[in-house]
Design goal:
- About 55% of the residues lie in helices and about 20% in strands.
- It is elongated, with a radius of gyration of 29 Å.
- It has 2 domains: about 170 residues, no CATH class; about 140 residues, no CATH class.
- It has a 6-stranded mixed barrel with strand order 2-3-9-5-7-6.
- The protein is an alpha+beta fold.
- The complex is composed of two ATP-binding proteins (HrtA), two transmembrane proteins (HrtB) and a solute-binding protein.
């Protein structure tokens, strides 16, 4: 550790340059990761907020909650088994600042509500709560919004991060939903479902129990967006490995004579390897932690309309992967260190 730190102080400009490059790569990786997660959240955050792993829906090859049609007979059979009211979903178009905003409207279901940021859940027929992203369009609690059909709705609250397939969710009371929507899709989100109940539900003609993954995999934009963004993140990690490999290898070559002298005076190879690995860990960790700080500050000033989402788990994963990538990238330097012959390095073989 002492040898590694002394070398960092002696070659401080070189190590600062390496840290700057890692910092820039770290910022790019974290930003793209946040963007990928943000776009993913805009597709599935409503499902996440429902906190349900099973969904009773219309039996179709491509299960989509916004297209699940359940007739009254099926509805009665389902509710006799699970004793729960359905979540109803219908498309709506709101007039906002002279423009039209397509949203998905849901009813209010007991124990299946997203987190409320401000205000209160709808109590009256003409009240709704809106997803926080709509506040970027200058909509606030107490404002009145019109639908394209001429209905006037009052905003009673704001819910956190609740979207489906890039459409913001607005929630109405059960009476308000039924008044505004003559036709709607219907789904039963379930947190607990035993095997016997699932079997009975699957026995109802035209009805099937789907998992959360079944539904998310059928959202067209979900996979289409995630694949290229994840490829970009992977590419940046590969670039990081190549850059770090080149830097540390060149630095190792430049220090061949010093390494040879250290070996000649009795410093063991394992101590030199330990010093190199410590240098890699210190420079990578400092640079990545600064990158995390930069992205954290940026996330605080980003507008709510920006699809950006990073969790501690995502950040921790990026930090760990960067450290692993840095160690992989320094493999050439480690191999070179093993092969250094003290006599040749100090010119004694000539």
């Amino acid at each position: 550790m002492k040898l590694a730190w002394q070398e960092i102080k002696f070659y401080k400009f070189r190590f600062m340059l390496i840290m700057l490059i890692i910092l820039l790569l770290g910022v790019m990786v974290l930003f793209i990761s946040g963007l990928a997660q943000g776009l993913a959240r805009e597709n599935i955050s409503m499902l996440d907020n429902l906190k349900s792993e099973k969904y009773v829906m219309q039996d179709t090859k491509q299960p989509k909650i916004e297209k699940s049609i359940i007739n009254p007979t099926q509805q009665k059979k389902i509710e006799d088994i699970i004793n729960q009211k359905p979540l109803k979903i219908a498309p709506q178009t709101l007039k906002v600042d002279g423009n039209e905003e397509d949203v998905l409207m849901t009813n209010k279901v007991k124990n299946k509500k997203p987190k409320l940021i401000d205000g209160h859940f709808p109590k009256k027929k003409n009240e709704i709560v809106i997803n926080e992203k709509l506040t970027a369009k200058n909509i606030a609690i107490g404002d009145t919004i019109k639908t394209t059909k001429g209905n006037r709705l009052t905003v009673s609250g704001v819910i956190k991060d609740t979207m489906h397939a890039h459409s913001s969710i607005v929630m109405a009371s059960n009476k308000g939903f039924n008044h505004l929507n003559k036709h709607s899709s219907m789904v039963y989100p379930l947190s607990h479902l035993n095997h016997k109940q699932q079997q009975k539900l699957n026995d109802i003609k035209g009805i099937k129990v789907f998992s959360k993954d079944d539904i998310t995999n059928e959202i067209p934009s979900y996979k289409a967006e995630q694949a290229p963004l994840n490829m970009m993140i992977t590419s940046l990690f590969v670039i990081s490995a190549i850059v770090l490999s080149a830097f540390f290898y060149v630095m190792t070559i430049q220090k061949i004579s010093e390494i040879g002298i250290l070996k000649a005076i009795g410093i063991k190879t394992k101590h030199l390897l330990s010093a190199l690995i410590t240098q890699i860990l210190i420079t990578t960790l400092i640079a990545v932690l600064i990158a995390v700080g930069v992205i954290s500050l940026l996330s605080l000033i980003m507008p709510v309309s920006m699809p950006f989402h990073l969790t501690i788990a995502n950040i921790s994963l990026v930090v760990v992967v960067f450290i692993v990538v840095a160690l992989i990238g320094a493999t050439l330097s480690l191999i070179k260190l093993f092969k250094v012959d003290p006599i040749e390095a100090i010119g004694g073989a000539e």
